[in-house]
Write a structure and sequence with these properties.
about 625 residues, about 35% helix, alpha+beta, 6-stranded antiparallel β-sheet
């Protein structure tokens, strides 16, 4: 029974990981790559220079309880898609200059549509270009934020549009501690002012004011939106959400993929998911490491939505909200405060905004996964040791030791039970041979033997079972936290979140060819140095265990290290290093405990038994 349960635990764990990697992870990555290439080709077609999703100038909601702003027509088509640089040079802009971001705000439309994250690069090369997050409409990958007003019932006054030419009051760039103010007069008695501020990280605040110098009151609805044109390239992994996201009051966390939005049935040419009458909410877009989200006042009552549409062949996506209307009397001023987070999903930064702004679980912008209660504390612990060692790789090694210490009592009982199992192995073999034709008597005799020797046949499964949540939690930490991105270890490992770049199939770089480029089998021909170390340590650990008497079971045990070696070769180097180090500690611990209980350590005898008999043997 012990052999069967151990086999079941190991095989199920292997099947879960193998199935995920080869039947979900690999195919999804390939599909994502193909879809991204297709979208890039589509984006080369002529597209309108203005979005098809901003609230319509001067169009009023049907009623104050309406769920979302009205969408205007597509506007006049623009010329061929231009480069981001060409569009930025085409008109006046207010520069943004902070320690974390650089970019600009277009005076035409007053959008925040140009933002680069200067502390993050596209590759591990520090000279590679910075990450571009936001880009203007008409460029290859438009992604921008916009604030404004929608007219209430009966309002015919001119309101700001994406084509409105604002003017800057004063001069100078937008820097932390020095807001900029933009102004526009509609010539009909309404004067608009927008004061934009930014902190030293990724938070923009906008205060919109409307002064009514006319003779009649006017009712306006403040709105904010984040718009994205074209389906962005995603990682394609089931365990990572990329797309539209928000925590909307008591509705909790809402996550929608671009594909899901595309599949919705269109209404009046648009596909949308509405969230009426929401308070204490936030919403926006999230990528693996970056995000752009709207952070309205937690007390504001919102009509929020996720929506999608098309401009020609180009798919567009939007998150937006409409706040309660304001009736501005003659001589009075209406105002609305809005916030935008646009930047890197740094754990400390996200948590700080969550606490300071009293947001509704803004921490969920980072996809901690089902094992949140393990994943985030595990990251915090690794990050704490990182500040002492200066290296996330060493921090992972230290945390692995601590995890082993936490589970030491359980492991001691397990290995002690395995030592007893090994001691009675000859008796178990005799029982199986004696009752080979009567499985019922065989199991009864084995259970009596376990009871007599005080052996728990399930104890050997426990170390494997308890490692599975920790394994997935660490995988999640390495996969989703930006702190691990481009974090070096030692030697050739320059990015713990990426696979080991070496490959035995080209003799670790001595042969100037990448075997992964081969058709069909290339995906499986990546086996780095650290995965090989991991496989060797797992092989030694398996050989410490009692050899199963059944030939089929023995074959499974013998092949398991090799299967795991190839399977984990494409995983994050940090995860493989953890697994190798954990195996090494387990071998030392198991050897010590089994030796203390009088069990013979037959590691090298087992190896000889696997590869052949001793020289001169019969």
């Amino acid at each position: 029974m012990n052999d069967k349960n151990t086999i079941i635990a190991i095989v199920l764990s292997a099947l879960v990981l193998i199935g995920w990697q080869f039947f979900i992870g690999g195919p999804q990555m390939e599909r994502a790559k193909q879809e991204a290439q297709l979208k890039q080709q589509q984006q080369q077609a002529p597209a309108p220079g203005t979005p098809g999703q901003t609230p319509a100038p001067g169009t009023a909601p049907a009623a104050p309880g309406q769920t979302a702003p009205q969408a205007p027509g597509t506007g006049a088509p623009a010329a061929q898609v231009q480069t981001r640089e060409a569009i930025l040079a085409a008109g006046p802009r207010v520069q943004i200059d902070t320690p974390a971001v650089k970019g600009s705000i277009a005076l035409k439309g007053a959008r925040i549509d140009d933002l680069a994250l200067v502390q993050y690069r596209e590759t591990v090369d520090p000279k590679s270009p910075p990450i571009v997050l936001l880009a203007p409409s008409g460029s290859e990958h438009p992604f921008y934020a916009e604030f404004g007003w929608v007219g209430g019932p009966g309002v015919t006054a001119k309101l700001p549009t994406p084509d409105t030419e604002w003017r800057q009051e004063g001069t100078g760039a937008l820097v932390p501690g020095k807001p900029v103010t933009l102004a526009w007069d509609n010539g009909e008695g309404l004067q608009f002012r927008r004061t934009i501020a930014v902190d030293d990280k990724y938070l923009f605040t906008a205060k919109d004011e409307v002064v009514n110098k006319g003779a009649e009151p006017v009712t306006l609805f403040p709105y904010a939106l984040v718009s994205r044109h074209g389906t962005p390239k995603t990682e394609g992994y089931y365990i990572l959400h990329e797309g539209l996201i928000g925590v909307l009051g008591d509705k909790g966390l809402q996550e929608e993929t671009y594909k899901k939005l595309d599949e919705l049935k269109p209404v009046d040419g648009r596909r949308e998911i509405a969230f009426p009458n929401v308070t204490n909410g936030w919403l926006g877009f999230t990528d693996k490491y970056w995000a752009a989200t709207l952070l309205p006042d937690t007390s504001a009552k919102l009509q929020a939505r996720f929506s999608g549409g098309t401009i020609g062949t180009l798919k567009t996506y939007q998150t937006d909200y409409l706040a309660d209307p304001q009736t501005i009397a003659p001589g009075a001023t209406g105002s609305a405060d809005m916030r935008l987070f646009a930047g890197a999903k740094e754990v400390q930064t996200i948590d700080a905004y969550d606490k300071a702004l009293k947001l509704n679980r803004f921490e969920l912008l980072i996809d901690w996964g089902w094992f949140y209660f393990i994943t985030k504390p595990l990251f915090k612990l690794i990050d704490w040791f990182f500040h002492f060692t200066g290296n996330f790789g060493f921090a992972i090694l230290i945390v692995t030791v601590l995890i082993k210490l936490v589970f030491l009592p359980l492991a001691n009982k397990s290995y002690a039970s395995m030592a007893k199992m090994k001691a009675v192995q000859p008796e178990m073999v005799n029982i199986r041979e004696r009752y080979a034709d009567d499985k019922m008597k065989q199991q009864t005799a084995l259970m009596e033997l376990y009871k007599k020797e005080k052996i728990n046949p399930l104890a050997g499964c426990l170390p494997i079972v308890v490692q599975i949540p920790v394994f997935f939690a660490l995988y999640k930490v390495l996969f989703v936290t930006i702190e691990m991105r481009h974090a070096p270890f030692i030697g050739w490992i320059r990015d713990l979140s990426a696979p080991d770049p070496t490959n035995i199939f080209n003799l670790f770089g001595l042969i100037p060819y990448d075997p992964t480029l081969l058709p069909v089998f290339g995906h499986f021909l990546h086996l780095g140095f650290w995965p090989i170390i991991m496989g060797i340590t797992m092989f030694f650990q398996m050989k410490l265990n009692p050899a199963p008497p059944d030939p089929t079971q023995k074959m499974i045990f013998d092949w398991m290290p090799l299967i795991f070696t190839f399977m984990l070769a494409g995983f994050s180097a940090g995860l493989v290093i953890y697994w190798a180090w954990n195996n090494t500690l387990s071998v030392l611990q198991q050897s010590f405990i089994m030796n203390r209980h009088g069990a013979k350590i037959e590691l090298f005898d087992n190896l000889k038994g696997m590869f052949g008999k001793k020289k001169g043997g019969t």
